[in-house]
Write a structure and sequence with these properties.
Elements (H helix, E strand, L loop, with lengths): L2 H11 L18 E8 H6 L1 H6 L1 H10 L5 E10 L6 E9 L4 H10 L5 E5 L2 E6 L3 H10 L24 E3 L5 H10 L2 E6 L3 E5 L2 H11 L22 E7 L3 E3 L12 E4 L7 E3 L9 E10 L3 E10 L2 H21 L4 H4 L3 E5 L2 E9 L3 H20 L8
Length: 383
C-alpha cells in the first residue's frame, strides 16, 4: 500500500487526542510476515511536530472528527506477493457508540451485512475501507463500488528509479482497501477496532486475540520481534523487504546512470539495486526522539556477507553522490552512519535536539525547492 494512502487512513482513524501505546506482540499472529507500529501520541507531541507548528493544527483537526481517542495503530501482513493480506488494529478509547457509528455508516449500502465471528460482531460492506472511514468521520457518502478513474490520454511514464520496499501490503490488497472493497470491520470492546479486506484474515485476527491461535509473543518463526527503543514513534519489520528494479532500468553496470529522469534538474535514474534484487531476507526500521536527539535506524539482513558489503558500499556511494550533487542537503545526510557486520547492514542517523531549528530550516528549504521545480515551465520546444 502506498505510504500516502496509508497515512491518510491512519489520520482519519485517529479521531481525537491520542494516548501513547506500545506494540502488543500478543495481538499479532505468529505467521505474520511484516508489521508496522505507529505511536500517534508521541508523534503529535514530538519536538518536530511542535516546533514546526503542525501539532496544534493536527490535534484540532482530529478533535473535530469524533469523541473517541486512538493510542496507536498497528498494521501487520500475512502471506507474500499478490496473496498478501493486511490487517489494521487501532487501539484507544473509542467510546461505546463506535459500533453504532460503524453500523450507521454501512446501513445505506444494499449489500451491507452484520454477522458474528468468534463471538464478535463483524460489519461487512462491498465498499472500500477508505470510503467507510471517510463516511464515519467526515460524513461522506459511501458508494458500493467507486467509479474507476478514466484512463489518462497521456499517462506519465513509470519511474525508472530503483526503490526499496518493506513489503507492507500487496498491490491487489491495496486496491481492495482504497477502491474496490470489500471491507470487514470488527469493534473489540471500546478500546480496539480491527479492519481488513479479507475474511480469513479477520477470523485469524479474532482467534489470536482470543488465544486460540499462536501470536508473536509466544512464537516468532521469522524473527520479527524487536525491542522498542525509548522514544520511538514508528517501528516496523518485514520479511518481504526487497530492493526492486524497474525493468526499463536494468541495463549496463550496476552503478552506471542509465536514464535521465524528467522529474527535474539534478535527478536521474540509476540501476543501483540490480545485482541486489532478491537478496534481502529481513528489514527493520525505527524512528523517534529521545532527550538528546531525533533518530532513525534501519537494518537489513542479507543472504550472505558479500551482499551485505555490496549494499553498504552502495549506500555510502549514494551518500557521497548526494553530498557532491546537492550541497544544500549535505548537512542532512552527513550524520548517516553505515556499518556491515557479517550478513547484516545497519544504518543510524541522528540530529541533536538542540539544533532542531536548523533541521526544520533545511527540510523547509528542500520542500520549497521541490515545489519550484515541480511548477517550473518546460523549456523543451513543442513538437
Amino acid at each position: 500500500m502506498r505510504i500516502g494512502t496509508l497515512l491518510s487512513l491512519i489520520v482519519l482513524l485517529a479521531a481525537g487526542f491520542c494516548r501513547a501505546d506500545a506494540i502488543h506482540f500478543e495481538q499479532i499472529p505468529a505467521d505474520a510476515t511484516s508489521y508496522f507500529h505507529f505511536d500517534l501520541d508521541r508523534w503529535i507531541a514530538s519536538r518536530v511536530m511542535v516546533q514546526s507548528g503542525l501539532a496544534a493544527n493536527l490535534s484540532n483537526q482530529l478533535k473535530t472528527m469524533g469523541d473517541g481517542t486512538v493510542g496507536s495503530i498497528t498494521i501487520y501482513t500475512l502471506g507474500a506477493g499478490e496473496d498478501q493480506k493486511m490487517v489494521l488494529m487501532a487501539q484507544g478509547n473509542f467510546g461505546p457508540d463506535l459500533p453504532h457509528r460503524i453500523k450507521t455508516a454501512a446501513a445505506g449500502l444494499k449489500d451491507s451485512v452484520t454477522f458474528s465471528l468468534a463471538g464478535k460482531d463483524v460489519y461487512y460492506s462491498s465498499a472500500s475501507m477508505q470510503a467507510i472511514v471517510e463516511s464515519i468521520y467526515l460524513g461522506a457518502q459511501i458508494q458500493s463500488t467507486r467509479p474507476r478513474p478514466e484512463k489518462e490520454s497521456n499517462p506519465s511514464p513509470p519511474s525508472s528509479r530503483s526503490r526499496f520496499s518493506m513489503g507492507v501490503g500487496g498491490e491487489a490488497d491495496s486496491r481492495r482497501w482504497t477502491s474496490t472493497g470489500p471491507s470487514y470491520i470488527a469493534p473489540v470492546g471500546s478500546d480496539m477496532v480491527i479492519a481488513t479486506a479479507d475474511l480469513p484474515a479477520m477470523a485469524q485476527a479474532l482467534d489470536v486475540l482470543a488465544g486460540d491461535k499462536p501470536s508473536l509473543a509466544s512464537s516468532d518463526p521469522h524473527g520479527l520481534r524487536m525491542d522498542s527503543p525509548p522514544g520511538v514513534v514508528f517501528m516496523g519489520v518485514g520479511v518481504n523487504a526487497d530492493l526492486e528494479v524497474n525493468p526499463s532500468d536494468i541495463s549496463g553496470p550496476t552503478t552506471q546512470p542509465v536514464k535521465i529522469d524528467d522529474a527535474g534538474p539534478g535527478r536521474f535514474g540509476m540501476n543501483l539495486f540490480g545485482t541486489l534484487h532478491g537478496k534481502v531476507r529481513l528489514a527493520r526500521f525505527d524512528a523517534g526522539e529521545n532527550e538528546q536527539s531525533e533518530f532513525a535506524d534501519a537494518s537489513f539482513g542479507m543472504i550472505d556477507s558479500d551482499s551485505a558489503t555490496q549494499l553498504k558500499n552502495l549506500i555510502l556511494g549514494i551518500k557521497a553522490l548526494v553530498s557532491l550533487s546537492q550541497a544544500d542537503q549535505e548537512p542532512l545526510i552527513e550524520p548517516l552512519d553505515v556499518q556491515a557486520d557479517g550478513k547484516t547492514v545497519t544504518l543510524h542517523w541522528s540530529w541533536p535536539a538542540a539544533k532542531l531549528s536548523e533541521l526544520l530550516a533545511h527540510t523547509k528549504g528542500r520542500r520549497k525547492h521541490d515545489d519550484s521545480t515541480a511548477t517550473r515551465p518546460s523549456t523543451q520546444p513543442n513538437p
